[in-house]
Write a structure and sequence with these properties.
heterodimer; A: 213 residues; alpha/beta; Rossmann fold; six-stranded mixed sheet; B: 254 residues; 2 domains; three-stranded antiparallel sheet; rod-shaped
Chain lengths: 213, 254
């Protein structure tokens, strides 16, 4: 494990060297719908800039357009890391308006939301290809991480050689299983947190500075 | 003598491919068609020879004189007086393309096919026992092949050389929309409107990245979405996409 970490660190340093020093890196927050991406983005933005990124909701696909918060300055160990946070729509292979009907939504609204969510996924995938310098991959630690979407996205991120931080979110919920996520992606470091409660955010910031600084 | 060269008068049997490259005798490229039941000589009045005529042809016919069909337009292979099946060059005339859904090739002289005549003929076309010998049929060429005699298979193949499948499809659209209209009111989400269903299928073929299962229901191919250079920024109600092309990159903000 130590070897892997060292290897990753050196890769990280090499990729760091490729970036212009003063350009803030654009860090995409990716993950399946309802993993807590916007909650995390808001948590980071509020902690360091005082503003939020976007509305949070328990209804899936609340975020249907990528939202960016620029120049978030994170201070760690006497060092300041400036990043742009891109909160992306949840990535999925299927969008069905019927899942919104359970949330007291009219059919028309549900259909529109579904269409927008689909556009959002397309946009998120496009950003991943073109516009991000690193990825924070957020997973709901109460859900099974072995999904096609997770495997595919992590695979794409790896193929792009993008620095990636895997966060096991929602550790405040009963049934959270961080180890399951760590097992699913043993090649990456998994950080547990509760973005909602702010649990373990210190470690998250340290890792962000380490990975993307 | 279903086909007759209008220049030298040579006749060809129905379905003959001899005149596909023009009349072997005189090189003429204009023929008139005489159904088997109407073998009257060419001097007979066009009204007598009149056989089922498509609406398009009838409408168009007013532009052409009735008496000089051999010379209406010596260059044209798509003149109404010319049998569409005997033309040997691919037609670019939409009227002719439309006429191909009319299985009864007409030698009627256009000007005689007035509105009243058209109605009669249209009615006649619905009668399978039509005495003008050519089976009335508004369907597409595919069905022609099934229903017609061996000789007519040759005609069908001849026609297929001239008319592209797209044109046939376009010509048969009224039939489709009719059946589609019945479904329109139904709750079937797959086909709210017939052409939308078609459009969806087309789009699904072109854009494998997003499959529109039904309104509000999508399947996404993440790898395709990721691999595409351009990306889909907006899905329209009717199944269309708006995509951002690589050239426009950098313009869009957030």
């Amino acid at each position: 494990m130590g070897l892997l970490t060292n290897l990753k660190d050196s890769i990280s340093r090499v990729t760091d060297g490729l970036f212009a020093a003063d350009e803030p890196k654009r860090i995409g927050i990716y993950g399946p719908p309802n993993a807590g991406k916007t909650t995390l983005a808001n948590r980071i933005a509020r902690d360091w800039t005082g503003d939020a990124v976007g509305p949070e909701s328990h209804i899936p696909h609340e975020t249907r357009r990528a939202r960016r918060k620029e120049n978030v300055e994170i201070e760690r160990n006497g060092r300041t890391v400036t990043i742009d946070i891109v909160d992306t729509p949840g990535v999925t292979t299927k969008v069905d308006y019927k899942e919104f009907l359970d949330h007291d939504m009219e059919k028309d609204d549900a259909v529109r939301r579904s269409r927008e969510a689909t556009e959002g996924v397309a946009e998120a995938m496009h950003w991943l290809r073109e516009d991000v310098d690193g990825v924070i991959y957020v997973l709901d630690s109460t859900d099974d991480p072995f999904t096609q979407v997770n495997t595919m996205l992590i695979g794409i991120i790896e193929s792009q050689d993008l620095p990636a931080l895997i966060l096991a979110n929602k550790t405040d919920l009963p049934g959270a299983d961080v180890q399951q996520i760590a097992n699913a992606f043993p090649q990456h470091e998994t950080i547990p947190l509760s973005a909602l409660e702010g649990d373990n955010m210190d470690e998250v910031y340290t890792k962000i500075a380490e990975y993307f600084g | 003598m279903p086909h007759q060269c209008t220049t030298c008068g040579r006749t060809f049997p129905d379905g003959s491919k001899e005149m596909l490259s023009g009349c072997p005798d005189c090189g003429g490229n204009k023929f008139q068609f005489k159904p088997a039941g109407a073998t009257a000589d060419e001097g007979s009045t066009p009204a007598e020879q009149s056989s089922p005529t498509s609406d398009n042809r009838s409408d168009q016919s007013d532009d052409f004189p009735s008496t000089d069909f051999p010379s209406t337009d010596s260059q044209s292979t798509d003149s109404p007086s010319t049998d569409p099946q005997s033309t040997d060059s691919p037609s670019t005339n939409p009227a002719e393309a439309a006429a191909t859904d009319d299985s009864a090739p007409s030698d009627s002289t256009p000007a005689d096919a007035g509105p009243a005549d058209s109605d009669t003929e249209r009615a006649a076309r619905t009668d399978p026992a039509d005495s003008t010998s050519t089976p009335p049929d508004e369907s597409t060429g595919t069905e022609h092949v099934n229903e017609r005699s061996e000789e007519d298979v040759a005609q069908a193949s001849t026609r297929s050389d001239v008319v592209s499948p797209d044109e046939l499809d376009r010509a048969s659209r009224p039939v489709d929309s009719e059946s589609g209209a019945d479904r329109q009111g139904s709750a079937d989400p797959d086909a709210p409107r017939p052409d939308i269903g078609k459009l969806r299928d087309e789009l699904n073929e072109q854009f494998e990245s997003i499959r529109i299962v039904s309104p509000g229901k999508y399947e996404l191919n993440l790898m395709e979405l990721y691999d595409r250079q351009e990306y889909i920024i907006s899905l329209q109600e009717d199944g269309r996409y708006v995509i951002e092309m690589p050239d426009a990159w950098g313009i869009q903000d957030e």
